[in-house]
Amino acid sequence: MAEEAPAAAPAAAPAKAAKKKATKPKKAGPSLGELIVKAVSASKERSGVSASALKKALAAGGYDVDKNRARVKTAIKSLVLKGTLLQTKGVGASGSFKINKKADTKPLKPYCCKTYPRISY
């Protein structure tokens, strides 16, 4: 019995043209960060606005908070890291927040990652 060479593989099909993904148009209107800053600045509370009151204000303004819960949390955290908001109580995206009057000061840089910001006592 003579061994036969394996049959040559059929020629590879020509590469298909790459499909272009349809990009979604950006929604017109303010970003979530701008909505949060507007809601906090509209409040007259001396100690700041709580996170739950902030979510209620966003929902009253027409933003779907239940659907975008994670986006609201990350937006609050990023505004605190940038120095736009001051966190008066709590940790992370919970607690109370107010507008930072001293916006000229640099925010504290995180020492390992964004989730654990450096805390000054």
From TrEMBL:
Any one GO BP annotation for this protein: nucleosome assembly
Occurrences of domain H15 (ranges): 28-101
Keywords in alphabetical order: Acetylation, Chromosome, DNA-binding, Nucleus
SUPFAM superfamilies: Winged helix' DNA-binding domain
Subcellular location: Nucleus
Major localization class: nucleus
Positions of region (Disordered): 1-29
Record Gene3D superfamilies: Winged helix-like DNA-binding domain superfamily/Winged helix DNA-binding domain
Family of the protein in this entry: Belongs to the histone H1/H5 family.
Stated name of the protein: Histone H1
